[in-house]
């Protein structure tokens, strides 16, 4: 235990005594903290801009950050600081246009419009924003605490109890689960997962000549990771939105905001009113967040629906949909509580559960020196595990981010209201250009650009056909670990073809995968 | 006065020694891409990055590290073969990449003579490693367990290591379950997680052995291991071969001699500079720097190439 505390302390130090941006009166301004603040402000701005989302900003900034900070271990915390800042800022910022303009800045803020906008219309926009901020930050903080406690124990358990065949089965379970719960049908989810696996298998493997390259020279080293991920996730989204705007040029325009009345701002008793809803929302969000692939939109919907049901049973309560503070609180607490818990499978197993997590893994992968997975949490006797220090550095950054969100988040939110007025027809081409530039900066090859555009078309087509794109990306990232662990398990078992069924744990995990595919799949 | 004369002296030297001028004068025509043929975060990866960092600091050249692991370094070799031979691309592999692995793969474009050897950094401290205090922490325990019918999972990080595991097993009468993992770090993670029982590690085990977490149950090189002088050599356990080699930098074939000399000298300077982080890591984790460049390195590589041919023949029989 004291060893663990020592690591916590080292992690805190790694943030505050890390490389400094500049010295003020002999005291260094830690670079990681500066990047965190920059990320937070960017995140709130991005969340507040309809048509942009946190993952999009993370995707674009990642290559730029890497080219700015390089590939040394010193780069890890500043880069993670900025990305975590965006992640945290965007969950907060998404509520701004939802409340002010009835336009969710991020998809998970959809439910916020239901009560936030009526409250703003009734002359209390500041009150609505304040409630959203308090609930969001409370949910986020709770979720982070769950992460800090659960991730190390989960990792240690996995490492202690899971052998190679079980690890393979666990990865199979993860992608099956993601295929089952994302999108409109299991079939489409599986299709997306399979596509991701096939693309990732190009030029991978241990054979001495690269496979599946179709004789194309540029594919000898495989599809560039960043081109596939950004193409499908970001460029595809831009294409789809541009197509929507092509049909209706005013689809994303904002309606005029209402001014605040004299009775604006947080009302006495508000906090006591929303506290239980925040608490329930946070628990729902954290529980859902811990499962890979189930997004914050579901958490927000579930929490809002449950809160609305509870309110209907109480005749004295303000009905939901009329500007009830409880409605805003339930939604914002739940969608924000997803982000921290989502990192539990990321840090302890290396399995990303949502788009934001995908980019954190990409960052770790590109910079090197930090490989999310059970080994991160090992505490070798007498030696210092630098990866564990990095983890606690990340936890420190998250805590500081929450603190900042509490203190200054509200002010930044109010200031960002104006961003929703930027027309999407101007914004999206700029985002596209910046994305492609960022990819070129990292890959320095035109092949990467063409690949990105090709995957952008794939992403657009998948959206048109209602095939979810995130399973593609997650399968693409997990393909390597799955193949590797299967290979290792196969040879460690002395070339037993039934290695996956060699232990009860692994059979149970595989059965769970089948159960997930059969029972969690649903037609929407 | 010295301040005034030193540049003059340097200028005089530059004018009077034409060969020296070439290497001294050589600067890379652009940013250098340094490919790293090892998984990110492992000992070899850190070593390569620290040397690059040292060169950047000392010489002001820009070096961009890029991970390119896989196929025992041949993925890197294939990429490097396409890169310009002007000193703007080199990569870190192990000596066996261009000897054993190249021969085993058999691609004529990826043989030793198609590349320029720049410099070695450290010699393998190759040990057969197991968890200390575990079921397999001595060779006797391994043979006893094998005799009792316990399957033994043997982690290896390259084809040559896998062949050597097979060869050692054959000579000792043990049929190992040979698991190929990613690099020495992969072997050690596997040992810690209980996924494998024993495995080859070429130096990264040093810290863990010193701290009593792991133990070298045998050594793969002729000289005793710095951390475990008592570990028996694998040749004493029946093997016909050692599992020796170097971590080294290679460049595309036909590299400009001035670039070869300058890069080799730069790597040597950083690796042997007692003030550099790279040097500290080499001492702590790789038994100290062991830099060989130029003709000396070429003759070692030729020898290793011949040995590799023999091992392949022996395992094939």
Structure explained in plain terms:
The complex is a heterodimer of chains A (524) and B (317). Helix content of chain A is 69%, strand content 2%. Chain A is mainly α and 524 residues long. Chain A has a two-stranded antiparallel ribbon. Chain A has one domain. Chain A contains 21 helices and 2 strands. In chain A, helix 2 packs across helix 16, helix 5 (95-101) packs across helix 6 and helix 7 (125-161) crosses helix 17. Chain B has 2 domains: 31-124 and 245-316, D-Maltodextrin-Binding Protein, domain 2 (3-Layer(aba) Sandwich); 127-219, Periplasmic binding protein-like II (D-Maltodextrin-Binding Protein, domain 2, 3-Layer(aba) Sandwich). Chain B has 12 helices and 10 strands. Chain B has helices at 2-16, 18-25, 43-59, 74-82, 95-105, 139-147, 159-172, 183-192, 206-210, 257-272, 277-285, 294-316; strands spanning 32-36, 63-67, 89-94, 115-123, 127-131, 153-156, 177-180, 198-201, 214-219, 246-252. Chain B is of the alpha/beta class and 317 residues long. In chain B, the strands form 2 sheets. In chain B, strands 2-1-3-10-4 form a 5-stranded mixed β-sheet. Chain B has a 5-stranded mixed β-sheet with strand order 7-6-8-5-9, sandwiched between helices. The interface between A and B is large, with 36 and 41 residues.
How do the helices and strands line up, and which of them pair or pack?
The complex is a heterodimer of chains A (524) and B (317).
Chain A: H1 2-16, E1 20-24, E2 27-30, H2 31-48, H3 54-69, H4 76-93, H5 95-101, H6 110-121, H7 125-161, H8 164-181, H9 186-201, H10 225-247, H11 270-289, H12 296-313, H13 325-341, H14 343-349, H15 355-367, H16 386-407, H17 409-415, H18 424-443, H19 446-464, H20 470-492, H21 504-520
Antiparallel strand pairs in A: 1-2
Chain B: H1 2-16, H2 18-25, E1 32-36, H3 43-59, E2 63-67, H4 74-82, E3 89-94, H5 95-105, E4 115-123, E5 127-131, H6 139-147, E6 153-156, H7 159-172, E7 177-180, H8 183-192, E8 198-201, H9 206-210, E9 214-219, E10 246-252, H10 257-272, H11 277-285, H12 294-316
Parallel strand pairs in B: 1-2, 1-3, 6-7, 6-8
Antiparallel strand pairs in B: 3-10, 4-10, 5-8, 5-9
Helix pairs in contact in B: 1-2, 2-10, 3-10, 3-11, 5-12
């Amino acid at each position: 235990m004291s060893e663990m505390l020592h690591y916590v302390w080292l992690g805190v130090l790694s943030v505050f005594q890390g490389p400094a941006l500049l010295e003020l009166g002999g005291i260094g301004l830690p670079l990681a903290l500066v990047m965190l603040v920059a990320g937070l402000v960017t995140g709130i701005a991005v969340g507040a801009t309809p048509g942009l989302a946190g993952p999009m900003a993370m995707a674009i900034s990642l290559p730029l950050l890497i080219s700015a900070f390089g590939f040394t271990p010193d780069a890890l915390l500043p880069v993670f600081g900025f990305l975590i800042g965006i992640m945290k800022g965007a969950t907060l910022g998404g509520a701004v246009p939802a409340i002010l303009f009835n336009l969710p800045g991020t998809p998970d803020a959809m439910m916020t419009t239901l009560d936030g906008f009526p409250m703003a219309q009734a002359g209390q926009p500041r009150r609505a924003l304040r409630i959203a901020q308090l609930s969001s930050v409370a949910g986020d903080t709770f979720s982070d605490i769950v992460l800090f406690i659960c991730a190390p124990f989960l990792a240690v358990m996995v490492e202690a109890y899971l052998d190679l065949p079980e690890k393979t089965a666990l990865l199979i379970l993860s992608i099956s689960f993601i295929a089952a719960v994302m999108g409109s049908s299991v079939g489409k989810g599986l299709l997306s997962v399979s596509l991701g696996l096939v693309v990732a298998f190009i030029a991978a493997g241990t054979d001495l000549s690269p496979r599946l390259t179709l004789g194309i020279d540029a594919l000898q080293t495989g599809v560039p990771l960043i081109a596939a991920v950004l193409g499908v996730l970001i460029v595809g989204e831009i294409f789809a939105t541009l197509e929507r705007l092509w049909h209706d040029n005013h689809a994303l325009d904002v309606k005029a905001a209402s001014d605040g009345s004299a009775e604006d701002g947080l009302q006495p008793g508000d906090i006591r009113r929303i506290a239980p809803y925040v608490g329930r929302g946070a628990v729902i969000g954290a529980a859902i967040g811990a499962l890979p692939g189930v997004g914050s939109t579901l958490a927000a919907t579930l929490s809002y629906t449950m809160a609305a049901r509870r309110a209907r049973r109480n005749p004295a309560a303000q009905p939901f949909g009329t500007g009830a503070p409880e409605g805003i609180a339930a939604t914002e607490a739940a969608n924000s509580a997803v982000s921290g818990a989502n990192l539990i499978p990321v840090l302890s197993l290396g399995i990303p559960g949502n788009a934001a997590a995908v980019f954190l893994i990409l960052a770790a992968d590109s910079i090197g020196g930090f490989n999310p997975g059970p080994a991160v949490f090992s505490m070798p006797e007498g030696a210092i595990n630098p990866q564990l220090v990095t983890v606690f550095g990340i936890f420190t950054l998250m805590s500081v981010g929450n603190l900042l969100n509490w203190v200054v988040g509200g002010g930044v939110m109010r200031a960002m209201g104006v961003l929703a007025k930027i027309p999407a027809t101007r914004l999206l081409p700029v985002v596209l250009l910046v994305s492609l530039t960022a990819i070129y900066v990292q890959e320095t090859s035109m092949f990467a650009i063409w690949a990105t555009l090709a995957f952008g078309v794939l992403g657009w087509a998948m959206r048109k056909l209602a095939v979810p794109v995130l399973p593609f990306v997650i399968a693409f990232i997990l393909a390597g670990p799955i193949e590797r662990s299967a290979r290792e398990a196969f040879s460690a078992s002395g070339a037993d073809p039934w290695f996956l069924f060699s232990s009860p744990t692994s059979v149970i995990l595989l059965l769970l995968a089948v159960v997930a595919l059969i029972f969690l799949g649903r037609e929407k | 006065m010295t301040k005034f004369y030193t540049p003059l002296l340097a200028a005089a030297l530059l004018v009077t020694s034409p060969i020296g001028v070439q290497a001294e004068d050589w600067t890379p025509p652009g940013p250098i891409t340094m490919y790293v043929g090892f998984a990110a975060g492992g000992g070899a990866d850190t070593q390569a990055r620290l040397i690059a960092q040292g060169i950047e600091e000392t010489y002001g050249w820009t070096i961009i590290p890029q991970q390119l692991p896989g196929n025992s370094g041949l993925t890197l070799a294939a990429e490097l073969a396409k890169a310009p031979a002007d000193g703007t691309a080199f990569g870190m592999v192990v000596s066996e990449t261009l000897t054993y692995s190249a021969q085993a793969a058999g691609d004529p474009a990826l043989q030793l003579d198609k590349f320029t050897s720049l410099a070695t950094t450290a010699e393998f401290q190759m040990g057969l490693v197991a968890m200390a205090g575990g079921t397999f922490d001595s060779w006797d325990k391994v043979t006893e367990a094998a005799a009792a019918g316990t399957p033994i999972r043997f982690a290896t990080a390259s084809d040559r290591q896998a062949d050597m595991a097979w060869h050692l097993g054959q000579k000792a009468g043990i049929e190992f379950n040979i698991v190929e993992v990613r690099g020495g770090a992969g072997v050690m993670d596997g040992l810690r997680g209980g996924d494998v029982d024993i495995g080859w590690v070429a130096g990264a085990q040093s810290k863990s052995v010193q701290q009593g977490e792991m133990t070298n149950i045998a050594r793969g090189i002729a000289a005793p291991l710095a951390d475990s002088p008592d570990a028996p050599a694998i040749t004493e356990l029946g093997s016909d071969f050692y599992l020796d080699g170097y971590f080294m930098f290679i460049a595309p074939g036909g590299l400009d001699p001035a670039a070869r000399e300058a890069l080799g000298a730069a790597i040597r300077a950083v690796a042997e500079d007692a003030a550099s982080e790279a040097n500290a890591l080499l001492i702590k984790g790789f038994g100290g720097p062991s830099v060989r460049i130029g003709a000396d390195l070429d003759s070692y590589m030729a020898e290793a190439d011949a040995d590799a041919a023999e091992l392949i023949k022996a395992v094939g029989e």
